[in-house]
Amino acid sequence: MFATLLVAAALVSATQNAPLQTTPLEVLDICRFNAARADETLLHHRIDLTGTVAEVERDGIGGYIVRLQAMTHAPDFIGRVEIQCHFAGSARGDLAKISPGTAVTIRGVPRTLRDQLGSPIDKHVIVTMKDCGLVATGE
């Protein structure tokens, strides 16, 4: 009986601590419609972000930044999102295999969210994710 309760508690804990599964466009929608939800579900929480790579560049301090970008052209809204995923230098081998347009899933922690959705000319959101790791690639 006690063992069953421990297993059940572990399963509930694992479910509660599972990273949010999302995409760049979903992040844009969350930021667009509900800033409180963005703060509650995205900022400082582990997320798994699935999207296509725009570029991989050096961060200037020995690591790398993988940029994921997306745009929406809905009838009532035109906007874009850029996710900057910061990787340690030790990820170089895995990141070297990625080409622009490759589908990836990256696990990381969003630390900053710059919302420029009120801009009359260029509505956009920029999210900076730290402690990133490559979960899967669509090689």
Based on the model shown, name its key terms.
139 residues; alpha/beta; OB fold (Dihydrolipoamide Acetyltransferase, E2P); 5-stranded mixed barrel; disordered N terminus
In short:
The protein is 26% helix and 47% strand.
Commentary on this structure:
- There is one protein chain.
- This protein has 139 residues and is α/β, with parallel strands linked by helices.
- It has a single domain (2-137), classed as OB fold (Dihydrolipoamide Acetyltransferase, E2P) (Beta Barrel).
- It has four helices and six strands, in the order αβααβββαββ.
- It has helices at residues 2-16, 24-33, 35-41, 92-95; strands at 20-22, 47-58, 64-74, 77-87, 103-116, 124-137.
- It has a five-stranded mixed β-barrel.
- β3 (64-74) and β4 (77-87) form a beta hairpin.
- It starts with a helix and ends with a strand.
- Residues 2-15 have low confidence and may be disordered.
CATH architecture: Beta Barrel
Which of globular, elongated, flat, extended, rod-shaped describes the shape?
Answer: globular
Fourth-level CATH superfamily: Nucleic acid-binding proteins
Largest sheet: 5 strands, mixed, barrel
Radius of gyration: 17 Å
> Biggest sheet, strands in spatial order?
2-3-4-6-5
Q: Give helix and strand order, one letter per element, not per position.
A: HEHHEEEHEE
Uncertain spans, ≥5 residues at pLDDT below 50? Answer: 2-15
Which structural category do the helix and sheet elements fall into? alpha/beta
How many extended strands?
Answer: 6
